[in-house]
Amino acid sequence: MTTDYLGAQASDNSQNLAMLGYALLFASIFFAGFPALIAVVIAYSQRGAASGMVGSHFAFQIRIFWVAFAVSLAAAACGLAGVIGGLGEVLAMAEVTGLDHLETLEIQLQDITIGARVIALLALALVLGFLSSLWLLCAPAVGFIRLASERPMGDSARP
Fold it and tell me: How far from the centroid of its chain's Cα atoms is residue 8's Cα?
C-alpha cells in the first residue's frame, strides 16, 4: 500500500514539474528566454523517469524550446544582417576627408537610399520574432490544457 502511495506521489511530482515547465516556457517571452532554459533542463532530466502521459509532455516541452530557439536565431540573424547592411549603406554615403579629420564626417540623410534587401531582412526579422513569440504563447498553453485534462501530447485523436 505504501508503494502505491509513493508511486502516486512521484506521478504528481512529475506532473507538477511539467506544469511548471509550461509556465516557464510561457514566461520566457517576457524574460528574454532565460526561463525556457530552466524549463528545458527540467524536461530533459524528467522525461525518462516520467510516466507515458507526462513523459509526452516533457518531450513536447523540449520540442517547444528547440523550435522557438531556431526561429529566434533565424530572426536574430536576419535582423543583424539587415542592420549591418543598413549601416553599410549609410557609411557608403559618408564623406570622410581622412582619419585625422573625423569631425568633418558628413551624412546627408536625404541622399541615403535603403535597399530592398535591407528592408526585406528587417521585415523578415520582425515576422520571425512575432512567430516565435506566438509559438511561445500558444504551444505551452495547449500543452498545459492537455496536461491539466490528463491527455498526452501527440496523437490528438485519442481521448
Answer: 33
Cell of 75: 530572426
Please state the domain extents for the chain: 2-148
pTM of the complete model beyond 0.85 = no
Could you tell me which residues come within 8 angstroms of residue 97 by beta carbon, excluding any fewer than 6 positions away?
104
**pLDDT score of 27 more than 80:** yes
Helices (H) and strands (E) in the chain, counts: 4, 0
The DSSP letter of residue 51 is: -
Rounded-to-integer distance, Cα 58 and Cα 113, Å: 49
Q: What is the pLDDT of residue 65?
A: 94
* β-pair partners for 95: 106
Using a 10 angstrom Cβ sphere, with 0-12 exposed, 13-18 middle and 19 or more buried, the burial of residue 9 is: exposed
Grid coordinates belonging to 24? 516557464
Question: What's the residue count for the chain?
Answer: 159
DSSP state of 115: -
